[in-house]
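Suppose a colleague, Dr. K., hands you the sequence of a protein chain of 253 amino acids and asks what its three-dimensional shape might be. Before reaching for any lab equipment, you can write down a predicted structure in token form. Begin with the sequence itself:
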Amino acid sequence: MSKARTARHSRVRSHAHRSRISRILWNPLFRPSHESLLRQNEEIDRLDLPRIQDDDELERLKLSGDLVPIEPGQTLRIDPRLDPDRRFCRPWTRDFVTDLSAAYYKQFHDQIQVNSAVRTVQVQKKLRRHNRNAAPETGDTASSHLAGITVDLQRRGMTKAEIKWVEQYIVPLRDAGLVEPEEERHQWVFHIAVSGRYADYHEAQFGGEQPQSESIAQSHEPERVQADPIPPSYEEVMKPEGFAPVSQSFQPN
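The predicted structure, expressed as tokens, is then:
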């Protein structure tokens, strides 16, 4: 065998080995799937929400209050590359982001970062031109960003303990049908679609008020090992008459 063929064969084996190692190391709790995309779109249809076509429709939904701004603060930051016109989502999705970021700040004294929120069909088409992993802009598996119910939260840069904490915070909400999460491999984000039912859950948790991040910052230091990520009074809130049964994500009422 020539030296050139030997070197080429060695490179192929090395690439295959790295690919196997990568697959072994990447073992997320919320693996993306076709079924997850279907559930996200079923929730959008249940809520009778439009897939936002263009900037004109986006602006109308902002003006009507159907989309609300995601505001950075002590517990939350926004990727500066995210277009200010698209730093919006549904009110209940913002409630989820606010609740999670406050709990995360209490635990780690650090911020959650929003990388993406609402998108239009026009934006999704452009995204798919250079990202083959992006969801389509139409059909049963269309991106749930198009309805404003979804945010992408940065996962890159988190420690293993921080990733695990976020996963365990999300698990009971997923099992209750309140969120549909995915951990994206290539973008390194938590992609989280939030059910319209989260508004009732948030009301039961906080009485319609936002968690007070300022008081959290002043009176709590992060407890990195033992803290329980499940929101307070979770078991009391999850009653059969108000929420979907466990493990039936985004099922109709």
